[in-house]
């Protein structure tokens, strides 16, 4: 099969590096073009329609999104994120999907119209990877079809989020059911009626000597008696309706034992399988958000009504250099993300954890600066609802914490790198031995170097 789409000179592929283009199969080229046309023609022009509809019904998915989801599904654009090693996958690799996800990220809710938004991406991949056929029929297939939405519930208000072994919500597992008591943060809001299931991680075996085997993951229907939403949590002043972030109390919540995923005590196995792809998906979309901020900055640079001292803003040297730095930063971060996606394809999510952590640490931090520079170019207007920039910046800041704070990922990377230290020390000692041999040959007195004699 070959694609008749012209890649070179095509705006859909303009930012994709040559080494990635060389790996794109015809199916990916077709999907990237479709997603590009979709976001450009269907989503960006509808941004103000979305806002107007959301204002009328704050916790209801805007009608424009519902209509677009039906249209996208009919065009085969649903669930593009699910990697091609799953039988339910539309067929793309992680690397190929990265190119699509960046384009989706140009509009915050663009991915939702294609069923490729958080937390659905992580939850669907979790269910596809770990559920039984019966569980898939009950939860996976409806989620992939867009019949309802879901939430992932792991964070707790009185536990250190950087150490998930401390997750403490209590799960009592009997022969027939699981009884749950405790509190959770950040699962999507029940205010939106489409949100119908929570994928919950809790502590079912607190006395287990292995802290990694104390926890269990299961599905809790949102309407289960005893599950109460306390409030929506605003993020940097935004309520993020219509999905939001809830704070929850579980009080004697009872669900059938068959709602357990994979088995009791296997929550960490599931969490690692879920969180790796989820982290990289955030970064993929954030590249698109940064590109949108960059383009808005260029638009502002040649606004004819804004000409201080008779010059376009873009004619000042400081802004020319600012735009250059923005451009190079986005391009560099794209390479970091694409490398992580390619590593996941070639070596698997577990082997790719360094590349994933690298993306999660570097990309949000770098792109926050890019978006901030775009806001500077707009001046006071860049802080208002006149542009998407404040929400784009807030999303980038949120991504720095989503799925774990920077320090947790840095610790993981640093700890893994420390394991290589003795190997490098042994190599340095060999250099020293060879140096001493050369000293003897050339009748020189050896000197200490690199702290090794």
Automatic annotation (TrEMBL):
Domain Acyl-CoA dehydrogenase/oxidase C-terminal per the UniProt entry, residue ranges: 268-415
Cofactor(s) in the UniProt record: FAD
Alphabetical list of SUPFAM superfamilies matching this protein: Acyl-CoA dehydrogenase C-terminal domain-like (SSF47203), Acyl-CoA dehydrogenase NM domain-like (SSF56645)
GO molecular function terms attached to this record: acyl-CoA dehydrogenase activity; flavin adenine dinucleotide binding
Annotated ranges, domain Acyl-CoA dehydrogenase/oxidase N-terminal: 33-147
Gene Ontology, cellular component aspect: cytoplasm
Keywords linked to the UniProt accession: FAD, Flavoprotein, Oxidoreductase
GO biological process: fatty acid beta-oxidation using acyl-CoA dehydrogenase
Top-level division of the source organism's lineage: Eukaryota
Classification via PANTHER family: ACYL-COA DEHYDROGENASE_OXIDASE C-TERMINAL DOMAIN-CONTAINING PROTEIN, MEDIUM-CHAIN SPECIFIC ACYL-COA DEHYDROGENASE, MITOCHONDRIAL-RELATED
Family: Belongs to the acyl-CoA dehydrogenase family.
Protein name in the entry: Acyl-CoA dehydrogenase family member 11
């Amino acid at each position: 099969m070959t694609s008749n789409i012209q890649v070179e000179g095509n705006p859909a592929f303009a930012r994709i590096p040559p080494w990635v283009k060389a790996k794109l199969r015809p199916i990916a080229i077709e999907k990237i073009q479709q997603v590009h046309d979709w976001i450009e023609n269907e989503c960006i022009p509808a941004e103000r329609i979305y806002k107007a509809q959301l204002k009328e019904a704050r916790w209801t998915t805007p009608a424009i999104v519902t209509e677009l989801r039906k249209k996208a599904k009919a065009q085969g654009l649903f669930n593009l994120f699910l990697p091609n090693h799953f039988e339910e996958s539309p067929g793309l690799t992680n690397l190929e999907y990265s190119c699509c996800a960046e384009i989706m990220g140009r509009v915050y809710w663009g991915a939702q119209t294609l069923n490729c938004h958080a937390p659905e991406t992580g939850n669907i991949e979790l269910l596809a990877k770990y559920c039984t056929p019966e569980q898939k029929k009950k939860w996976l297939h409806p989620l992939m079809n867009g019949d309802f939405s879901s939430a992932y519930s792991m964070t707790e208000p009185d536990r250190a989020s950087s150490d998930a072994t401390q997750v403490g919500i209590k799960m009592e597992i009997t022969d027939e059911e699981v009884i749950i008591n405790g509190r959770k943060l950040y699962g999507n809001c029940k205010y939106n009626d489409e949100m119908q299931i929570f994928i919950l991680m809790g502590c079912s075996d607190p006395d287990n000597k292995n802290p990694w085997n104390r926890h269990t993951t299961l599905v809790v229907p949102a309407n289960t008696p005893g599950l109460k939403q306390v409030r929506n949590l605003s993020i940097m002043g935004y309520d993020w309706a219509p999905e939001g972030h809830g704070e929850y109390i579980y009080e004697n919540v009872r669900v059938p034992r068959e709602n357990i995923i994979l088995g009791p005590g296997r929550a960490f196995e599931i969490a690692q399988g879920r969180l790796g792809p989820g982290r990289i998906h955030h970064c993929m979309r954030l590249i698109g958000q940064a590109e949108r901020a960059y383009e808005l900055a260029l638009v502002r640079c040649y606004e004819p009504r804004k000409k201080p001292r008779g010059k376009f803003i873009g004619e000042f040297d400081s802004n020319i250099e600012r735009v250059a730095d923005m451009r190079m930063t986005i391009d560099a971060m794209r390479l970091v993300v694409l490398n992580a996606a390619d590593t996941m394809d070639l070596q698997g999510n577990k082997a790719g954890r360094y590349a994933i952590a690298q993306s999660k640490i570097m990309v949000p931090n770098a792109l926050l600066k890019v978006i901030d520079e775009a806001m500077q170019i707009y001046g006071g207007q860049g802080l208002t609802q006149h542009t998407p920039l404040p929400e784009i910046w807030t999303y980038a800041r949120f991504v720095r914490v989503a799925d774990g704070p920077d320090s947790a990922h840095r610790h993981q990377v640093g700890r893994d790198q420390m394991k290589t230290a003795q190997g490098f020390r042994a190599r340095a000692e060999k250099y020293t031995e060879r140096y001493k041999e050369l000293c003897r040959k050339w009748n020189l007195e050896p000197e200490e170097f690199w702290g090794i004699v």
